[in-house]
Amino acid sequence: MSEIIYTKGRESQLVNQYNEIKAMIDNECSVRDVLLLAVSKLKPASDIKILYDHGVRQFGENYVQELLEKSELLPKDIKWHFIGGLQTNKCKDLAKIPNIYCVETIDSLKKAQKLNEARAKFQPDAPVILCNIQINTSHEGQKSGLLNEDEIFEVVKYFLSDEVKHIKLNGLMTIGSWNTSHEENAGENKDFATLANWKQKIESKFAINLKLSMGMSADYKQAIKQGSSEVRIGTDIFGTRPPKNEARII
Ligand SMILES: *Cc1c(COP(=O)(O)O)cnc(C)c1O
């Protein structure tokens, strides 16, 4: 593995930004732990290495190919979260990554099945992959996620069945509507309320405990107020992202 180098200037910038958000989160919520997931999509491996050297171990990526390359390059004790739109035929590529930790965008039974099968086939001895079911709480057509109760229950049931040994249901995930997150004096966010509602419903029906992955740079404080267990922050830590065709890993 060749060494990944970075400048002192970038290091102090990223560490300061990360610490600031972390302090804000701890300030917002003292009664429970809220995971700060550093969303590193379209940012170079050197940025990830800076936060890794600062002690951060969990990072979120959106593109399978980019995640494959970064996971090869970077330390193997990183716990990768996949938070991008998931295609059924990419489930096997994710399952092959030994240290993929959590796939947050399971939005069909088929994808859960594929992921379990591929993990069993390609990485039978690696840790189980935690999974979040993505729910489309804003009912926006372009957003992924399940909407329908029967389908949601069907996927939960699959996770709880005996045949599933290589993936495990961890929680629910949503992306709040952009408009709702950017309203002034927004108050309660209805998408987050909807997700919290699903959590209650599923927990009581199936007697399980679920986590909530909700909140991004624009709306994480509100998400924490409404019960988030994990906020996914990119821009506020790493700065604005380059367009995809200009992004570089090294
Ligand atoms: C990009 C992304 C984030 C981070 O968004 P920021 O606004 O940059 O904090 C969080 N969640 C998902 C699903 C994303 O795609």
UniProtKB/TrEMBL annotation:
A GO term for molecular function: pyridoxal phosphate binding
Pfam families noted in UniProt: Ala_racemase_N
Residues carrying N6-(pyridoxal phosphate)lysine: 41
InterPro entries: Ala_racemase_N (IPR001608), PLP-binding_barrel (IPR029066), PyrdxlP_homeostasis (IPR011078)
Signal sequence coordinates: none
Keyword Metal-binding annotated: no
Superkingdom, taxonomy of origin: Eukaryota
UniProt keyword list: Pyridoxal phosphate
Cofactor: pyridoxal 5'-phosphate
Domain Alanine racemase N-terminal residue range list: 35-242
Record PANTHER family: PROLINE SYNTHETASE CO-TRANSCRIBED BACTERIAL HOMOLOG PROTEIN (PTHR10146), PYRIDOXAL PHOSPHATE HOMEOSTASIS PROTEIN (PTHR10146:SF14)
Family, per entry: Belongs to the pyridoxal phosphate-binding protein YggS/PROSC family.
Function: Pyridoxal 5'-phosphate (PLP)-binding protein, which may be involved in intracellular homeostatic regulation of pyridoxal 5'-phosphate (PLP), the active form of vitamin B6.
HAMAP family for the chain: PLP_homeostasis
Annotated protein name in UniProt: Pyridoxal phosphate homeostasis protein
Organism, scientific name: Arxiozyma heterogenica
